[in-house]
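Lecture notes, structural biology module. Today: joint structure prediction for complexes of two components.
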Amino acid sequence: MMDPRMLTLLGVVTIALIAGSAIGELMRFTARSDRGRAFGDNLRSRMLSWWIMAAIFIISILIGGTTTVILFALSSFLAFREFITLSATRRGDHRALFWAFFVIIPLQYIFVARANHEMFTILIPVFAFLMIPARIAAAGDTGEFVGRMSRIQWGLMVCVYFVSHVPALLTLEIAGYDGSNAILLFFFILIVQMNDVMQYVVGSLIGRTPIAPTVSPNKTVEGMIGGVVSSAAIGAALAWATPFSVIPAACLAMAIAWMGFLGDIKMSAVKRDIGVKDYAATLPGHGGVLDRLDSLTFAAPLFFHVVRYFYVM
Amino acid sequence: MRWVCAMLVRLLVGGTSRGHVACDEDRPRVYYANHTSNLDAIVVWSALPIHCRSRCRFVAARDYWGRDPIRRWLSCRVFRAVLINRRRPCKGDYPLAPMLDCLEQGESIVIFPEGTRSADGDTGEFRPGLWHLAKRSEDVQFIPVWIENLSRVLPKGEFLPVPVLSAVTFGEPIHMQPNESREAFLHRTREALVTLRGNAA
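The predicted structure, tokenised, for the full assembly:
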């Protein structure tokens, strides 16, 4: 009944999760130093969150269609809320924020669910960008105007617009790939998350050269290259599940990995600017919803538009 | 109904509870908080440990919460609020009496000593009610409660909420010292509340 490609991907994810949990437990019991034990504890809480996130995501994928869109709409809502909570907004932003939360976010995902590509591409960069400054100006407080306007707009771009490109993958009409878009979405998420993990693992093992020390001191050139290379390998290995042949699959996976890295760095810069380490404490070991979505934000629109350009008639 | 409302509000604004809430022993307490939004009382109430909630009531201004049937229904029926007169009472009408009755019956109360919502999120001067309350009920603990971000959720004069995450920080209990003057007590309690703001960040 279920697509064998989907079953195999599910198997891959389950094995990766079991491996991660096993390593965490092993480190907790064998670690000699406090640092090692702390690492094991951290990995354990991270893995628990991973299991829950994977379960929620996979269930929504299996139920299909609108459920996945709703899941990402909720994630956008929570992420935007974390972003706004930490941003300096003023009394005069109140009405604009109400519109953003309760009108723009639902509308964006309604257009995604209805596969209305034109509207979902312009709703935020055109309509929301016209409306938000106007609403703030109408409220009368002009202090810090450009900063306040940009914060809300950028928050909408990152938390809503970029993220909504993930479920939008379900609406692409790719020749010879009918009804399999859920697998494409799964492929994308798998690459983004594995890139995060591999970057971290390779970086901790052999990382020497900081790549952006003022933004994200733990990121290294070695880790970044390790992430891109292993993503390419995973992408090539999973090419049979996608509409791409091996070389394009590897290239797309590399692009996803590179964009994931940039998205991550960018969200770290935002956090530095605000002066916090994590956006919230919703997911144990990970921080907030926005901390988990950071690498996805840049990768999703790029992947969506590249696939759309080359593979959609 | 109260519990449903509390759940909805927490879903909307988070309302994470921070700091130590000492309510193991059953004695009345006065939770006093900064006042920035109409949602303040319900958020403080729902941040309390579950077993303390049923013995805790809100104090609300009669001239605001008793003005029309909807607000009356919300405040009296749903939230069992203690309505008091904010304006200068007539002779013989003692505005603190309903609160003292509550404390005598062993119920805790949530009050906002500034007397009104602050427009800019700053903490105003405390009204003397807190001191009168302390003078007349000696063994009552006063617990400062700092409410963060609710002014951004539902500012004064707005009707529609914005779901910014809020947090509630409980401070250490305060007792009135013997012969403490009004100014000293009000200053001390206010300082305790404002300090929580610094710690909360």
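Point to remember: Chain B has nine helices and seven strands.
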